[in-house]
Amino acid sequence: MGLVSKAQSWLWVALLPGLAFGCRRAERVAPAARPVPPPAAVIDATPPAAARGRTIALLYASNLLGKYSPCSCAVEPLGGLARRATIVGQARAESEATVVVDAGDLFRAAGTVAETERQARLLAAGMTHAGLDAFTPGETDLAIGLPLLRKLAAAYRIPIVSANLYGRDGARLFPADRLIEAAGTRIGVFGVTAAPSADDANRLRADGVVVRDPADAALEAAASLRARGAQLVVALVHAGLPAQNRSLAARLEGVDWAVLGHSALNLERPEKAGGTLLLEAQSEGKDLGRLDLHVVGGGTGFADRGERAELAAMLADHQQQLAGYDRSLDGLDPAALEDYYRQRRQQLEAAIARETAALAALPRVITGSWFENRIIPLGRGVPDDPQVAGLVREYLARGLADKRRPHL
User: Fold this and answer.
1) Under DSSP, is residue 21 helix (H, G, I), strand (E, B) or coil?
2) Which of 192, 343, 350, 360 could form a disulfide with 214 if both were Cys (CB 3.0 to 4.6 A apart)?
3) According to DSSP H, which parts of 171-323 are helical?
4) Whether residue 290 is found in the same domain as residue 373
């Protein structure tokens, strides 16, 4: 329901006591003539034509929080390591290159120390099978213990990157970044982590993890990657709630894309913060984000192919609201709603003017590089990857056997 519709519903309730008076007045005074809304312009919402170019699929996730199987959701079970692996495999088949990243909170404590490690090994094995090019730890990953996290990274070749996590000795806990060659384009990836709460900060300090300023570390990492030839820079930002992540991302220079962790946003269309475009695909592995970068002629300035269609849809909705506005107020005393009517109509007209101008400025044909972003629900329509599904079955079977074993 649009803002105007919501406001109208509220006003009906607020004005009920005065409607009888208003109706009697309307019998005596003819309603003032209202201006007729201009006809809606014909909108071409077709995505602009574009050359395919070399396609790089950036697959991104965060906030898995140990969820290796589909959720017990009422409408449809979503998620699962095996479905995730299938989507990654499809992207590999459809693209010249893939880059798979995770912005943290992948692992979490699972009761006992032994069970935490067992579950973590399942998650690490599933991720490694699907492919993982860069991972930055969040607070739940660090909570399983630095020794176990390092053990998993070594055993399953998990490429952990962190530009701002240090030990008490002043040495970095993990490499700051990675430079990845993807279909002729050099992509730099780095990660930063900020403790989202005071309790997290205290626990990390007790574990010997020193968290340096993430903004300073990010600027340094981006500059280093650019100096070493990165044509695109992707930041994995695990800085807390949405406002904290957005605030940090807005301060980044030299960063094209930021994959967010912890904030659990579902950004169908990348959100802009400063010069950086933000990506996030909800939480608990229910969805997987896929950003297709079409590199045309080697250019790394990307147009949003879906922007025109989305803007056209918004414009059409506002035009429809404006066209139906007078009809929705028929029978009410014009004077009773005069201020509201004038204000809401002005707001709609201003929005229509902005959107019309923005739409006119967008190209009908994209001649350079472009991108499309999708949030892919991991529902029943996504088949399980057989190998990862086998890992999950083995994990569950062993857990059941352990529960049945008598404890002396």
Assistant:
1) helix
2) 192
3) 198-206, 214-227, 242-250, 307-323
4) yes
